[in-house]
Design a protein that fits this description.
Layout lengths: L14 E11 L4 H11 L2 H4 L2 H4 E7 L5 E9 L2 H14 L2 H9 L1 H4 E2 L2 E7 H5 L11 E8 L6 H13 L5
Antiparallel strand pairs: 1-3, 1-6, 2-3, 4-5, 5-6
Amino acid sequence: MSQKTPERKRKSSDVLSLELSTFVHATEDEERVLQAVSNVLPERMRGSLEVYLSKNVVLGYHGNAITVMKFFIDEEVEAQEAFEHIVRRMEESDFNYFLDSLEDRFEHGRIYLRVDKQEAYLGNIRISEGDDVIRVTALLKPHLRKSEAVSRYLLSLRSKKTTQ
């Protein structure tokens, strides 16, 4: 007779991967930009940003150096945790705008979001339509391919919102 070992409860994940990307212009302090990106992520992930980071330097239109920073989280549980953190920390007005504009932000299982880089540096998650942003792309699992299902999913994340 075999003895069953209790199964560890695994946190379910609806997010397959998460990418954050931003530009660091020659006039910006790279450490401050890293701090802004760090502030968007859950606290436990902030100390290990370099694990997710890839950098590429390109030349701008006027020949100025621009560093492209990308942070790719492909571990589902971590991607889920980071995406939940972003959604839960949004101001109510930003979250409502996010939902209202979901049709423009959701395509082929991906949610696209632009977070104001200056606000992120200050510790706030605010949606922006400008260029000085941290771009967030969340790849969702196949059962979340219709905007109605995604909208319900986002609302469920907010309903679990805790004070942080």
